[in-house]
Specification:
CATH topology of the largest domain: Rossmann fold
Strand order of the largest sheet: 3-2-1-4-5-6-11
Distance between the termini: 28 Å
CATH superfamily of the largest domain: NAD(P)-binding Rossmann-like Domain
Helix content: 25-40%
CATH architecture of the largest domain: 3-Layer(aba) Sandwich
Structural class: alpha/beta
C-alpha cells in the first residue's frame, strides 16, 4: 500500500526537499501551513511539485487543530519541521521560539498518543542544543548546553520526544542536524545573504555586505542530502536519535571568501563588520560527528561547504538578477565575466 506522510513545515527548505524525496518514493504527501489557502508554497513551486502535495491548514500550537489534521490525514509518518527556524530571530522573539517549537512538538506527540495509531514520528532537533563543545565535534552523547532561545526550545522538544518514546512507546526519533544550506534558503539567513550579495556585486551593483563575527565556525552541509538522512532514520525499526553532519568545520570568513571567489571578486573589498549584528550569546565552534548515522543508516555526505556555496551561486545567478528583496533589482554588469550566466536553475540541483 502507498505510504502516507504528513510534513509539518512543508513550505520551508527542508520540508520542500523532503516532500520531493518522499514523492520519488511513491508516498502520498500532505503538507501543513497555518493558512494553506493563503500560503504560496514558493519552494514547492520552485521544485516543480506543488500540484503533487496536498496542503492543509494546521496550527501546531493548537492541540485541537493538530488532532483534527492527524485524524483526517491518517499518516504513516509525521515529520515535524515546523516552528521558528532562525536563531537570530529567537533572540528578538523568545516566546514565539519556545511556543512554536516545543509546544508544537508536544501537541503532535500527544495527538499521536491520543489517536493510538501506528505512526512513526520525526522531530527536527538541532546542533544548537549542544552550545559550546570546547572545540570537539559533538555526537549523540554530548551534553546539551544551548546558548540561544532557539536552542533552548529545540532542547525542550528533543527531550519531549525521548520521553514519549520511553514512557508511551511512540516510535519517535530526533534528527540532530548541523547547519545545512541550499538555494531554497530565505534571504534572512546569513548564508543566502552572503551569496546574494556576491552575485549582486558581480552583476555591477555597488554595495557593501555588513556582517557580524566572521570567526564563528560551523559545520555546513547540503540540505537535499540531509533530508535523505531524515527519511532513513525514520525507517529504523529501533528508533534512535542521530547526529547528521559533515564533520568539517569552516569559519564564516571562509564561507564569505568562497562565495566571492566564485564570482571572481575579493571579498575584503565589499564586506564591512557591523558589531550590532553580533548575537547576545553565540557559539564560537560547531561541528558534528555522524559516525553513528554512517553505521546505522549508511548515510555519509557527498557535498562539502565549497560545493554548497557553488550550488547556491549557480542557482542565484540562474535566477536572472535575484537579489535580497530590500536591495531591489539589479542589472548584469561587467563584473559578471567571472561567472556563468547560464547557471542551472534551482530545480535542477541534485
Amino acid at each position: 500500500m502507498q505510504k502516507r506522510a504528513l510534513i509539518c513545515g512543508v513550505s520551508g527548505q527542508d520540508g520542500a526537499y523532503l516532500a520531493r524525496l518522499l514523492l520519488s518514493k511513491n508516498y502520498h504527501v500532505t503538507g501543513t501551513s497555518r493558512d494553506a489557502q493563503m500560503a504560496g508554497f514558493e519552494n514547492l513551486v520552485r521544485l516543480g511539485i506543488r500540484d503533487q502535495v496536498d496542503c492543509v491548514s494546521m496550527s501546531l500550537t493548537d492541540f485541537r487543530s493538530t488532532l483534527q489534521v492527524l485524524d483526517k490525514v491518517r499518516p504513516d509518518e509525521v515529520y515535524n519541521l515546523a516552528g521558528q527556524s532562525s536563531v537570530a530571530l529567537s533572540f528578538e522573539q523568545p516566546v514565539e521560539a519556545m511556543t512554536s517549537i516545543s509546544t508544537g512538538c508536544l501537541n503532535l506527540l500527544e495527538a499521536i498518543r491520543f489517536l493510538g495509531q501506528d505512526i512513526r514520528f520525526y522531530n527536527a532537533s538541532s546542533s544548537e542544543c549542544f552550545g559550546e563543545t570546547g572545540g570537539r565535534a559533538a555526537d549523540e552523547t554530548t551534553p546539551f548546553r544551548p546558548r540561544s532561545p532557539y536552542g533552548v526550545a529545540k532542547a525542550a522538544a528533543h527531550w519531549t520526544v525521548v520521553n514519549y518514546r520511553e514512557a508511551y512507546g511512540v516510535h519517535a526519533v530526533n534528527g540532530i542536524l548541523f547547519n545545512h544550506e541550499s538555494p531554497l534558503r530565505p534571504y534572512r539567513f546569513v548564508t543566502k545573504k552572503i551569496v546574494a550579495a556576491a552575485c549582486a556585486v558581480a552583476r555591477g551593483r555597488k554595495q557593501k555586505l555588513r556582517l557580524g563575527d566572521l570567526e564563528i565556525k560551523r559545520d555546513w552541509g547540503f540540505a537535499p542530502e540531509y533530508v535523505e538522512a531524515i527519511w532513513r532514520m525514520t525507517q529504523l525499526d529501533l528508533p534512535t536519535d542521530l547526529v547528521i553532519a559533515t564533520g568539517q568545520t569552516h569559519s564564516l570568513r571562509e564561507f564569505v571568501s568562497a562565495a566571492f571567489d566564485g564570482v571572481g571578486l575579493d571579498w575584503s573589498e565589499y564586506v564591512e563588520i557591523d558589531d550590532t549584528l553580533r548575537r547576545p550569546s553565540d557559539i564560537a565552534f560547531s561541528a558534528g560527528n555522524a559516525a553513528l548515522a554512517q553505521r546505522l543508516i549508511g548515510w555519509r555526505p557527498q557535498f562539502n561547504m565549497k560545493d554548497v556555496v557553488r550550488l547556491m551561486l549557480e542557482a542565484e545567478l540562474g535566477a536572472r538578477g535575484a537579489v535580497p528583496p530590500e536591495e531591489g533589482a539589479c542589472e548584469k554588469g561587467e563584473g559578471i565575466r567571472a561567472v556563468r550566466d547560464d547557471a542551472s536553475p534551482v530545480n535542477t540541483v541534485r
